[in-house]
Sequence to fold (128 residues):
Amino acid sequence: HFRCTLKSSILGREAGPGYIVHGALGSFVKSWVDVQEPALIRGESPCQPGWGRESEQDWGILNTVVDGIPVRKRYPSLPGDYPAWWRGVEHALREGGAPPVRLEDSLLNMRIIEAALESQRSRTVVPL
Fold:
């Protein structure tokens, strides 16, 4: 069984978590921080060492049980890599390789956005 709840507000003065994943044995909470975009805005280069690595304060928190013992600790995300994505785009365009995002996934994202807009307009649940 899978359930996804999406929330958004223009009224919130505090940012909530980017996502929360709950399972039978625990939860994972992560802020919605992509360290690459702010770094680019500051003028940093994606070619520098450590690009895409988040600070420990931005790590997600895993709260679970391991061998019967409650565990709550921070876990880092994999480093972001915008340059790798663009290399994938170039490879797909120049050499006919697989694109970094499958067409089916892009189309699904468009359907989700369109359903969200229709749901907001009609004030009803719009199934996909």
User: Anything to note?
Assistant: The chain is about 30% helix and 20% strand. Residues 103 and 109 are 10 Å apart (CA to CA).
